[in-house]
Amino acid sequence: MVLEPGVSKNVILFSRGSHRFAVAIEAIIEIIHVVKERKVPLSPPSVTGIISVRDKIYPIVDLAVLLDLEKVKTNEDDARMILVQVDGEAFALCADQVEALTSFQASEWRAIDTDENSLSSKYIHGAIQPSGYGEADLLALDAIMSDLKSEAKRLAAT
Questions:
Q1: Among 3, 84, 87, 108, which one is most buried in terms of CB atoms within 10 A?
Q2: pTM higher than 0.70, yes or no?
């Protein structure tokens, strides 16, 4: 990810488990209360089901499963689904709590340690620490979508 000095990027901060994430605002379609999902046979473990919102189907990606995060008990009233779009394709992210709309500067971003075998390095652009907030991992939605599409093609071929 490249961010020019002096240019800010708007993000939504949210938590999943004990972890904080950020999603670029331009990728967000909308944030909704949790709705009943439908299970999909043979879907990858990180896809917990699908939802229909305004006649559009969204696969639900659980970052806790995808990134092997520790699950923590949360207040279900605070839970949300974040509908995102990448290159014309959409999916929903599970969030325990949406915390803030904020922005960060290039000076508040840092690369994460890259380990080829780490899912985290594959799905995270880097860590940010916007002024007034704790650190959050900036999600690489394009990588998540790419893997969703690859997995769907693989399952369709079987």
A1: 84
A2: yes
